[in-house]
From TrEMBL, chain A:
Keywords, alphabetical: Glycerol metabolism, Kinase, Transferase
GO biological process, one term: glycerol catabolic process
Domain of life: Bacteria
Self-association and partners: Homodimer. The dihydroxyacetone kinase complex is composed of a homodimer of DhaM, a homodimer of DhaK and the subunit DhaL.
GO CC list: cytosol
Pathway: Polyol metabolism; glycerol degradation
Species assigned in the record: Oceanobacillus indicireducens
Protein's name in the database: phosphoenolpyruvate--glycerone phosphotransferase
UniProtKB/TrEMBL annotation, chain B:
Pfam family, one: Dak2
This protein's name: phosphoenolpyruvate--glycerone phosphotransferase
Subunit structure comment from the entry: Homodimer. The dihydroxyacetone kinase complex is composed of a homodimer of DhaM, a homodimer of DhaK and the subunit DhaL.
Origin species: Oceanobacillus indicireducens
NCBIfam families linked to this entry: dha_L_ycgS (TIGR02365)
InterPro entries reported in the protein's UniProt record: DhaK_L_YcgS (IPR012737), DhaL_dom (IPR004007), DhaL_dom_sf (IPR036117), Dihydroxyacetone_Kinase (IPR050861)
Amino acid sequence: MKKIINDPNLVVRDMLDGFVAAYPREVRLLPGTTVIARVDAPAANKVGLVSGGGSGHEPAHAGYVGEGMLDAAVAGEVFTSPTPDQVLEGIKAVDAGEGVLLVIKNYTGDVMNFDMAAELAEAEGIRVEQVIVNDDVAVEDSSFTTGRRGIAGTVFVHKLAGAKAEAGGTLAEVKAVAEKTVKNVRSIGMAITPCTVPAARTPSFTLEENEIEIGIGIHGEPGIERKAIVSSDDIAAELTEKVLDDLKLETGSEVAVMVNGLGGTPEMELYIVNKKVNEILTSKGIRIYDTFVGEYMTSLEMAGVSVTLLKLDDELKELLDAKSKAPAFRC
Amino acid sequence: MELNVANTVKWMTLANEKIQENKTYLTELDQAIGDGDHGINMARGFQEVEAKITATDYDNVSDLLKDVSMTLLSKVGGAAGPLYGTAFLKLSMAVKGSETLDFPKFKSGLAEALAGIKQRGKAEKGEKTLVDVWEPLVDYLNGQNSFNAAGFESVAKEAMEATKDLEAKKGRAAYLRERSIGHLDPGSVSSFYIFSSLAEVLKEGD
């Protein structure tokens, strides 16, 4: 294992320290926790939005903390859900009396830990609602959960629910936007090389020199199939078709596209994938309202890509266009 | 039976001892059908439990059990943290304010703990989770009028061993479907250590 780290057991703490050092105008680290919060938290007269999960998916989730997106992000150990006490600290830090919405990726550990935090917060008199993101169409029953996993589509949930909260939406309204986003977003990923959890020191799985895996999860969970590598156009077409099969878009539908690198993929290759995704959607009469190409939800140094489509309506378009100051999603 | 502050501290200390001794074994069981961290996480959590409760003075056993719960919640992580944390929290809440627990109180508290685990993990009996140890024990106690340490331990042991033949329906092992058959459920094994510790501590007191 060759990584630019210090102590493998302290990678999360070291990362968080470096993160707040980079964006002191937007975020702060709550003392004694692994919670990154908006610098002005609790933002007055506004529903609080809290997400989080295991580390190793940067810029998720801390990169999405800032005006117009999340109020706080709770970091767990690498690929391990944060504990309820940490999530509770995040909830308490952002509650301005308007209630707090939790955005949770669908993994057994995450769901249980956030659920407990919500109960503890309610016991302290804070109104808490939850939305579970399950955009990965690769596997219906994944190795980590009952139901689909939450992957890159989560970033759109942060953006749209965040915009709704910033615009003064009530807890019920912000939750409704988050649920609508979850209902309309689908993703699937693939990998050409594995990743290594620092404390584990060996790769989570192996792929042969010429082998790829379609449908892989962001922790290296098994996907749909392993096969010999094909061209970028073929990969892009397979991923796009699998998303379209599930999302069922009519001609004339409008979408936002996200072509997301998993950590070890050159931006050049992401654009090459996007070229084909764009071509396919256009040929089907689907209108592309906006496109996001880059690293949004990674898996350490895994080389690979995921494709996300979000079906838009007028409300979602307006929220997508709203201002965000989050370091990893400025618009 | 009487579960008081002193023997509950002994219970947790002995449970920690067993978990530390079997840390590698629990992790190996988890590597076979899960994500291979159960021993590491449980060992970290119970070590903190022992440190916390031996350094604190308690007036009643319910406060002690609440500290056990909160420590497990914040130190274990993964899925085991919320499950064991919920179990001890529900047990503590069911006996809130009690200085000591007699058999009827313990029996109803354990039933509450089981209900908490099932609700938290959305699991039922037969899905190869720790419910498969907790539920047979609660059922067994319901048919008893007093605590029988040997009987309690043997029910726990049999239930734990029976998870070997089950196909996992919940947790990460569920992905393996029929390939999960033939392996013990790691959470059931750690639950067995907790309950056999209780039996041993209460047997001594008889």
